[in-house]
Amino acid sequence: MSTPAPKKRPYRKPRTDPARRVAFDALRAVDERDAYANLVLPSLLRKAQQQYPDFDRRDAAFATELVYGTLRMRGAYDAIIASCTDRPLGKMDPPVLDVISLGAHQLLGTRIPTHAAVSATVDLARTVLTDGPAKFVNAVLRRISERDLDEWLDRVAPSYDEDAEEHLGVHFSHPRWVVSALWDSLGVWQPGYSGRSAMEDLLAADNDRPEVTLVARPGRATVAELRDSLPDDALAPGRWSPFALRLAEGGDPATIPAVRENRAGVQDEGSQLVAAALAAVPVQGRDTRWLDGCAGPGGKAALLAALAAGRGATLVASEVQPHRARLVARALEGNPGPYQVITADGTRPAWRPESFDRVLVDVPCSGLGALRRRPESRWRRKPADVARFAPLQRGLLRSALDATRPGGVVGYATCSPHLAETRVVVQDVLRGRDDVEWVDARAFLPGVPDLGDGPDVQLWPHLHGTDAMYLALLRRK
Q: Is 300 labelled a binding residue?
């Protein structure tokens, strides 16, 4: 008597989870088009809200956590995934690796139950890939689920004593060269606070979700007005900037009338401090013409324009890229005083020498100071990028100094703590010039602690809760 063949399981159509599909589409845009998650994700969320009637704020928050959490921890997850398969990551189909990374984050970085994380991710794989890759995804995720994150990191990373930089890089998911550059800079700026615990604090702060900080633009909105527009528990005072308020997690800036009317905006507190410090330095003689020489996308320019208007001064905002110049013009709309937005190359000035009283150059850089906001940058940037920016940074600073009249001041700023983009640039440009002197910037960041020995300053996410902004103030003699 023959044995009956086992019954096949009925085919189950994979369930489409909109939040996970949004997260996958965002990761593909980051990988394929070098997009930034903070730019591509909002449009994907709006599309999901239109396509799925039940897609609500919780789904949007979950999709956002999946995207940013996966991008932040990609280095650590790659090491863990590599230990769970014989297939080299470099030969793995990128969409497959993205799906596995999303599953790894759910298993190791969230409280989602293991069965739900694996099942939903396999369903996603069956939807966006095929059944064959989905089986591979299922097998890898089940191996990952055998240990928690700490156990995996201890397994795939060398010990601290064996290789400190690699240990920290894997445990906190930063490329080794970034760990090395941050450690060098921290040792210069905070020599008494640059050991293992300090580096762990800094790298952990890079992986924290950044707060949304608002700026009340002087003469157009006040901190009190912003505070009164939302419940008491929705806002907290800024730490250092007199124009800042911090929005509680989940708060939506678009619900605030002053933000909708462009009288206030979203701006990191470190960025606010840079603009406010430049505006606070005394100048000798007139104080009527200000320049933002690298104005895009317009946050610092909007604050400077508002401060200039309160003193009867005019701001010229220059940006070399036309699409970014349009963003600057939008940010400055409604400014109460005169201003001008121009498309120009700061290294080939469209203005006469010595024609401005105050000049800000927030130069293009590696962006290592904003890894909280753009976690994909840590994997996209290479050491060669730092060298690539060097000639432009020096050229912009020289041009800014030449554009400033004797007695005026220049602010050199960059959203990077890398020494080769900060103090080294200023020292190189000033070498051989006897017409420029340092101004101690610490005096114009009142109340901000841990600023080092001066005269320039470096902000840190783990010490100040800001992006890692650098500022040097220079006076033409």
A: yes
CATH 1.10.940.10 location in the chain = 18-149
From-to residues of CATH 3.30.70 in the chain:
212-266
CA atoms lying within 13 Å on the CB side of residue 207: 22
Q: Dump pLDDT digits (tens) for 167-178.
A: 999 999 999 999
Distance CA 464, CA 244 (A): 14
Give, for 227, the enclosing helix (H) or strand (E): helix 223-228
362 labeled binding residue:
yes
Q: Is 131 annotated as a binding residue?
A: no
Annotated active-site residue 84? The verdict is: no
Check the annotation: does 268 bind a ligand. no
3-state secondary structure of 216: strand
| Residues 5-63: tens digit of each pLDDT | 555 555 556 777 999 999 999 999 999 999 999 999 999 999 999 999 899 989 999 99
Q: Give the three-state DSSP class for 378.
A: helix
Q: Which residue in the list 363, 415, 429, 430 is annotated as catalytic?
A: 415
What's domain 18-149's superfamily in CATH? NusB-like (1.10.940.10)
CATH superfamily name and code, 269-476: Vaccinia Virus protein VP39 (3.40.50.150)
